[in-house]
Structures are given as structure tokens and as C-alpha cells.
Specification:
three-stranded antiparallel beta sheet; single chain; 42% helix
């Protein structure tokens, strides 16, 4: 975790030195980290500790997440939204009712399996970047089907796909 934080700070420092605004530094860093390095093996040191060996490979997270999310049954999800038994009534005369389809909990869908709260210390920079990328791709693919992502009203860890009911 210290290494992730140190790498993030070094990268943000480099970005800041090149004249970028601080609020864009994390976004620029994330766009550069659309892939990640994973360890393909470990070795045991004489002290009993393990460390990664040189068998590292880069995983294209954008491709991996896109393939995973595109494999979901989007037509069924869209139909489930249309058949919602308890749609949200329209707020204005010209609006449509909103139907939702439950897709799962944050803990079962997100790559990190974590739900973030301001006081939490269990997330790493890597978790945040992977989860942000996953959500970005999920929302992009959902929009192709006329859907969007919503959190649950009763339980904010629940995720729903939503669409106007025709």
C-alpha cells in the first residue's frame, strides 16, 4: 500500500511540474493507468518473506472490464427495467416513470469488492483506480442500451440499472 501511495504521489508531482492543474492530475494519472502489472510468480527469500519475481506482465484493464461487462445479458436487463413492479412515478407530466433492475451489490460487482466511506482506510490507490475505471466502462455500456446506473435508495451498496418505462 505504501508503494501505491508513493507511486501516486510521484506521478502527481511529475504531472504538477508539467504545468497541469492539480484537479486534473488524478484524472491524467488514471488515464495512464488503464492497465496494471500483475505478478506471475513469487520466490521465498532466506528470511521467509516472499517477493515477486521478474515474471511480470501488463494486463489491459479496459479490455478486460469491457469484455466482462459486454458479456452480461443487456437485453434482459432492459426488459426487467420495463417490467419493474414498483416504478418511480414521473415528476412532471412529460416525464416517464423510471423502471429499475437490480444487478447486485457493490461488494459483488466492483473489482475491489469494497464500498468506500470517508473514514475507511482499507482502500488502496489501485482499488480506487480499478473501481473508477470499471464504473466508467459500466456506465458507458449501459448508455448504449438506453440505461443508466443508480444506487439503491434503502441500501446504497445496491446497484440498479434504470430506464424510462415506455
Amino acid at each position: 500500500m505504501k508503494q501505491d501511495a508513493r507511486t501516486l504521489m510521484q506521478s502527481m508531482t511529475v504531472i504538477a511540474k508539467h504545468g497541469k492543474k492539480p484537479q486534473n492530475a488524478l484524472g491524467d494519472l488514471m488515464s495512464g493507468l488503464r492497465g496494471t502489472w500483475i505478478n506471475t510468480g513469487q520466490e521465498t527469500l532466506p528470511t521467509g518473506r516472499t517477493r515477486g519475481v521478474t515474471g511480470m506482465k501488463r494486463i489491459d484493464l479496459t479490455k478486460q472490464y469491457t469484455e466482462e461487462i459486454e458479456s452480461w445479458d443487456w437485453e434482459t436487463a432492459k426488459t426487467d427495467c420495463q417490467l419493474d413492479e414498483y416504478p418511480t412515478p414521473p415528476e412532471h407530466e412529460d416525464d416517464s416513470a423510471i423502471g429499475r433492475a437490480y444487478i447486485g451489490s457493490v461488494m459483488s460487482i466492483m473489482p475491489s469488492g469494497k464500498y468506500y466511506m470517508p473514514w475507511c482506510t482499507n482502500q488502496t490507490c489501485s482499488d480506487v483506480i480499478k473501481d473508477s475505471l470499471f464504473l466508467e466502462i459500466l456506465e458507458s455500456i449501459a448508455s448504449r442500451y438506453g440505461l443508466w446506473l443508480e444506487a439503491g435508495e434503502g441500501c446504497s451498496t445496491d446497484l440498479f440499472l434504470a430506464s424510462p418505462i415506455n
